[in-house]
Design brief:
Oligomer: heterodimer
Largest interface: A-B, 31 and 48 residues
Strand content of chain B: under 5%
Shape of chain B: globular
Number of domains of chain B: 1
Structural class of chain B: mainly alpha
Number of strands of chain A: 0
Number of helices of chain A: 3
Radius of gyration of chain B: 20 Å
Number of helices of chain B: 6
Largest sheet of chain B: 2 strands, antiparallel
Number of domains of chain A: 1
Structural class of chain A: mainly alpha
Largest sheet of chain A: none
Helix content of chain B: over 70%
Strand order of the largest sheet of chain B: 1-2
Strand content of chain A: under 5%
Shape of chain A: rod-shaped
């Protein structure tokens, strides 16, 4: 029991054999499978991380493009508004001009017509007056009319000679 | 007293007969049993959807690896398989008394062999980690005066390992035999639980714990 003998050596050999057997049949496979699982999990985590990052990137891109589109639409809207306003202004101005032109044209026409009418009327009135005068002359006899006419002329002459005292001689020379 | 003796089972007819003792034969049985069980348990390991046996095995291994990693650190990782082997062997050897065998650890040849292997491993690890020069220099640290003590430690460490295991197992074995002689019925059960199971596992734990501690110190 307390003596050391060959069995010490046997024990050491046994231990080494047991170590090799355990390493081959127990520790190796179990550690291997645990390592494999660890690698698998790490792989999965890395993959998930990558996918997450990709999704984030895609979201960023999407947001960027959305932002761009919004800006673009805003820009288009502003341009369209400005153009529409310009067009509106132009049309209104044109319409105003046209209306003004039409108005002035109409006024000129009206003026011309009025003048025409006045002239016609004057002619008519003169005609009427002549007729009236003829009628009067015929009725009251020529002598009286001549007298009247002459008296009228004289009166007018005297006033005229009064007004043109300075060059009366010249006048007579001309005549 | 015949229970205390380690009987010689047979003799190898060499050098005038080498006696192969009971402890060696039981160790062979243990080796065979452990190998066969390993093959059975490891047969269908799966990376995904592990079975209950695999889960138990893996959690046991995870615990053992964490335990030894914590003691020996990064540099001692290569010695973990040996530690696992030794703790398995000592645990089974201490518990095999339950099956009616004589525990091999009751034979001092076995514990001495284990202790010699431990100290060889410790010194090997030290040489590997520091080189021969560094290993020799370590004997004079922290100062030259402690040189004899450090050299003495080369022998006291395995001796204490060997004797602790041997004494504990032998002591519990003797007490169990005495109790069995006095009251053969029922009474031995709680004592059996304590001396064979609890003490056996504690001694296995202590042995590998100390060995790992020495290795960790050597490779540090």
């Amino acid at each position: 029991m307390l003596s050391l003998n060959w069995n010490l050596l046997f024990t050491i050999i046994n231990l080494i054999v047991l170590y090799l057997l355990m390493k081959k049949f127990l520790i190796g496979p179990v550690t291997g499978i645990m390592e494999k699982r660890k690698a698998l999990i790490e792989d999965g985590l890395a993959n998930a991380d990558k996918a997450n990052k990709d999704a984030q990137k895609m979201k960023q891109q999407y947001e960027d493009s959305l932002q761009n589109a919004r800006q673009e639409s805003e820009r288009i809207m502003t341009t369209a508004k400005a153009e529409a306003k310009n067009e509106y202004n132009r049309i209104v101005e044109e319409a105003g001009e046209k209306a003004g032109k039409l108005l002035s044209g109409a006024q000129a026409t009206i003026e011309a017509e009025r003048a025409q009418t006045v002239k016609e009327l004057q002619t008519e009135i003169a005609g009427l007056a002549m007729t009236a005068a003829k009628k009067i002359v015929n009725e009251s006899g020529n002598d009286a009319v001549y007298d009247l006419f002459l008296s009228d002329v004289n009166a007018g002459d005297s006033t005229k000679s009064n007004g043109l005292e300075g060059d009366g001689s010249e006048d007579s020379d001309h005549r | 007293m015949e229970e205390l003796n380690c009987e010689t089972v047979f003799k190898i007819p060499l050098f005038g007969g080498i006696g192969v003792s009971e402890s060696t034969v039981v160790t062979w049985i243990i080796i065979a049993a452990l190998t066969i069980l390993s093959i059975i348990f490891v047969r269908n390991l799966k990376v995904e959807n592990p079975g209950k046996i695999q889960l138990a095995l893996e959690s046991l291994f995870g615990w053992l690896q964490d335990f030894f990693d914590g003691i020996m650190g990064e540099n001692g990782r290569r010695y973990v398989p040996y530690m696992i082997t030794v703790i398995l062997y000592i645990a089974v050897a201490n518990l095999i008394g339950l099956l009616g065998f004589k525990p091999p650890t009751k034979d001092m040849n076995v514990t001495a062999g284990l202790a010699i292997m431990s100290i060889v491993l410790v010194e090997f690890a030290a040489i590997r980690a520091r080189g021969t020069k560094g290993w020799l220099k370590k004997f004079m640290e922290p100062m030259a005066v402690v040189l004899p003590i450090n050299i003495l430690e080369l022998f006291t460490r395995p001796l204490s390992l060997c004797m602790r295991l041997f004494g504990n197992v032998l002591g519990s074995f003797v007490i169990m035999e005495l109790i069995k002689m006095l009251v053969p019925l029922l009474v031995p059960i709680p004592f059996n639980c304590y001396f064979d199971i609890f003490d056996g596992l504690i001694q296995a734990y202590v042995f590998v714990f100390l060995t790992a501690l020495y290795v960790g110190e050597a490779v540090e």
